[in-house]
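Budget justification aside, the reviewers requested a transparent look at the raw inputs and outputs of the sequence design task funded under Objective 1. We therefore reproduce one unedited record. The lines immediately below are the structure tokens for a 203-residue chain.
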């Protein structure tokens, strides 16, 4: 903080997960911003710190601690729908990992999905049809040609059965009680921030 006129300065709008070494003072100062708590989830969190009531603002962010790089560390998607972003910059491919998206997928992140019990419809007259919608983005672009998803069943990484894959979005029929393994990947344009959106519909 530069305060050559010694008029004083103050920091405001500090997110509750962030702490500052100093929040006000007079004269030049070096301020250290630190995460007060760990980000134990998969979602990144962000905020804006204001200096002198917004005369100057600093954007801050922190990635989540969960990083589902390996199949064994897959992150379970919950609820009927969801949407989030995650970087795959440090993601890898395991030695026994299948070839994703017809060989185009690289730097995979793993997720699992099972239809929530609260969404399972019990009907005597007909058997409901369940459909899962999945879409991916790369650096905010849905039709970038560089984001893919592949859906599998099976319990062992080396023996997965591919159900479908897509380059931006797709719909697939799913069954209650079945665990689906979803790998999201980027392509030859490189790693970045991948977005995943999902929603279950029943008919």
């Amino acid at each position: 903080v530069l305060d050559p006129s010694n008029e004083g300065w103050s920091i405001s709008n500090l997110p509750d997960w962030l702490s500052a070494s100093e929040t006000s003072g007079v004269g030049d100062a070096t301020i250290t911003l630190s995460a007060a708590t760990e980000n134990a989830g998969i979602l990144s969190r962000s905020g804006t710190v204001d200096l002198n009531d917004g005369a100057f603002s600093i954007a801050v962010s922190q990635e989540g601690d969960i990083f589902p790089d390996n199949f064994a560390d897959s992150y379970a998607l919950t609820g009927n729908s969801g949407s989030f972003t995650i970087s795959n910059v440090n993601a890898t491919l395991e030695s026994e990992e299948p070839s994703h998206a017809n060989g185009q997928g690289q730097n995979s992140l793993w997720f699992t999905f099972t239809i929530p019990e609260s969404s399972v419809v019990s009907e005597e007259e007909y058997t409901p049809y369940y459909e899962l919608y999945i879409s991916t983005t790369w650096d905010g672009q849905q039709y970038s040609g560089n984001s893919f998803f592949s859906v599998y069943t099976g319990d062992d990484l080396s023996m997965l059965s591919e159900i479908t894959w897509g380059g931006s979005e797709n719909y697939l029929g799913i069954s209650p009680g079945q665990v689906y393994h979803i790998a999201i990947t980027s392509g030859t344009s490189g790693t970045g921030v991948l977005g995943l959106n999902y929603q279950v519909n029943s008919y």
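The chain has no helices and 15 strands. The two ends are 59 Å apart (CA to CA). Computational costs for records of this kind are itemized in the attached budget.
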